[in-house]
Every structure is written in C-alpha cells, then in structure tokens.
C-alpha cells in the first residue's frame, strides 16, 4: 500500500516535477505477466526514477547495506526500502549470487516485474561495465523476457557520493524485450549464460550510448582505490636526506 502512496502521492509527483524525465519506449514493458527489466546503474536516484515512471509495480534486488545502516538514518533507510517492497541481498560470500537468484525467481513466480542491474553495483565513473550472469540464469529458469533499460543523465544529477541531487535532464529509455527461449534448459551452460548476459549488456549499451568496459565494475573500482591509496602513501612517505 505504501508503495502506491509514494508512487502516486508523495515521491513520484515530486520526482517528475524536479527532473521532468523524458520517457522513451514505455510500450515495451509488458502490460501483465512476469518480466525482467535490466538496466545500467549510474546513481542512487535510479532506484526511484524508474519505478516512478512505470505503470506497473517493480521490485528491485537491493544491496543488504541499505537495510543494515547504523543510527536513525540507517533505520529510516531500511524502513523506506522495506515499505516499497525492495528485497535485501547480501553480496558477500559464496552464496550471495544464489541467494539473489532465489529472491528474484520468487518475484517472477508471482508474475511481477523484477528490476536488476547486471553490473552488480553503481558505475563509479559513468561507464558501462561487464554484466554478471545472474540475470541470464533467472531469465532462463523463469522463462521470461528481459527488457533492457538505459538511465541517461542520472550520473550527472547524482554521482556517487553526492547526497542531494542536482537538477539535470534525465532520459529513461526502454528497449524491445529480449526473448531467450531458444536457450531453454541450458541455464547450466556457462558459455550460454555469458552469451545471454553480453547480449543484454549490448542492448543497454545501444540505448545508453555509454563507453563500455569489458571488466567487472567492482574490480576496476577496487584497483583504482588501491592505486589512489598507494599514491597518497607515497606522497606522505618522508624523504631521506641526501649525502
């Protein structure tokens, strides 16, 4: 119930007023039945802008950190995500991927829309990164179409680390549903899962126009952070006197 109060009374109208998002391809979202909406992930705002423009309810797999933050802010954030039906997923440990797949399949089994970001995390630099194969596993097991989606302008509106978004033109673009029924029964084939995931990411790429990086975002971000720490440590290291 609170989901629809936010969507139609509180948050939805405010987001439309502030960002005035241009919506393209909304007709590609199935009017009924289960489907996966797979999008790029550029900003925290993505969680709110896409649901605000869809006619149907959509459930996202959200990282568990949104539900476990400390203090009043943490409790408010957890309450908000719970109230709008988002599902916490622990991304640590070997079972993290399987847990996400189980939760996602549960949503699809109820003939609902499932929102997922195949990159697995927000892009830290605005580029599109290699997708993880969980989206392919769910598409095959649930036998549902995948609708690619591109969020454009949300990185500029609210880049990582910025709490209050700035006003910036936003485009939300949906592509034609992708049908993978030709791969039915092959969800355990690694090559098939990679091919499906790459096809989904290419569809998102065509919609978004981003620069593509054929590596996982989390790996690249960790490498860049480690390099930055090394440079900082080097600048702080005292120089030995000469002679």
Automatic annotation (TrEMBL):
Domain Phospholipid/glycerol acyltransferase: 35-154
Annotated InterPro entries: Plipid/glycerol_acylTrfase
UniProt entry keywords in alphabetical sequence: Acyltransferase, Transferase
Molecular function GO labels: acyltransferase activity
CDD domains per record: LPLAT_AGPAT-like
Domain of life: Bacteria
Pfam family, any one: Acyltransferase
Keyword Transferase (UniProt): yes
PANTHER family: 1-ACYL-SN-GLYCEROL-3-PHOSPHATE ACYLTRANSFERASE
Protein name: Lysophospholipid acyltransferase family protein
Organism: Streptomyces broussonetiae
């Amino acid at each position: 119930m609170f989901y629809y109060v936010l969507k139609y009374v509180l948050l939805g109208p405010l987001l439309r007023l502030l960002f005035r998002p241009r919506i393209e391809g909304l007709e590609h979202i199935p009017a009924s039945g289960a489907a996966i909406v797979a999008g790029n992930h550029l900003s925290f705002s993505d969680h709110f802008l896409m649901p605000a423009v869809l006619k149907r309810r959509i459930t996202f797999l959200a990282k568990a950190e949104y539900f476990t933050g400390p203090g009043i802010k943490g409790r408010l954030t957890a309450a908000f995500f719970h109230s709008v039906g988002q599902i916490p997923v622990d991304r640590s440990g070997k079972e993290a991927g399987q847990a996400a797949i189980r939760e996602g399949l549960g949503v699809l089994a109820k003939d609902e829309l499932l929102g997922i970001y195949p990159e697995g995390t927000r892009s830290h630099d605005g580029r599109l990164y290699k997708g993880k194969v969980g989206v392919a596993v769910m598409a095959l097991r649930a036998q549902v179409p995948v609708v690619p989606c591109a969020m454009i302008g949300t990185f500029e509106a609210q880049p990582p680390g910025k709490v209050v978004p700035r006003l910036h033109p936003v485009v939300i673009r949906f592509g034609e549903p992708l049908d993978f029924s030709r791969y039915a029964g092959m969800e355990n084939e690694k090559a098939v899962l990679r091919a499906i995931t790459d096809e989904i990411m290419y569809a998102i790429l065509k919609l978004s126009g981003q620069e593509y990086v054929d590596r996982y975002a989390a790996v690249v971000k960790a490498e860049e952070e480690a390099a930055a720490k090394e440079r900082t440590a080097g600048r702080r290291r005292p120089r030995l006197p000469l002679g």
